[in-house]
Amino acid sequence: MNRALRYGVALTVGLSVAGLVARFGNGDHLLAPSVFLIYAATTSLVVAHRGTWRTFFGTDPDRKQRVLGAVSGGVAGGATSAFVQISVPAATAAFGLMVFGMAITVADFTHRSESTPD
């Protein structure tokens, strides 16, 4: 994807989520910019490596991928529900950080698989 288009999509997503956090948040002024950075960077990484995302999280995973998905989904669900009880903006930031970690892993995998000689 064109770099300018990718960054445009990332900025739109980041600003949208940060705007919702600022609008419905608890008044913490540092949370909205943090959420913007998390979601903009995550969106940019996901869009840049969307082919690898489709491979990892496709419709035909093997057993290890299903187990990993179940464990990570359970941890994410439990942590997100705990954060929602504290604060919805904090839960939004926590979810964004979880997806950001996934995006970094996919980007690293793509980089390593492209630089590894066959």
From TrEMBL:
The chain crosses the membrane at residues 7-24, 30-47, 67-84, 90-109. Keywords: Membrane, Transmembrane, Transmembrane helix. InterPro entries: DUF8153. Residues 21-113 form the DUF8153 domain. It holds the Pfam family DUF8153. It comes from the Archaea. This is DUF8153 domain-containing protein.
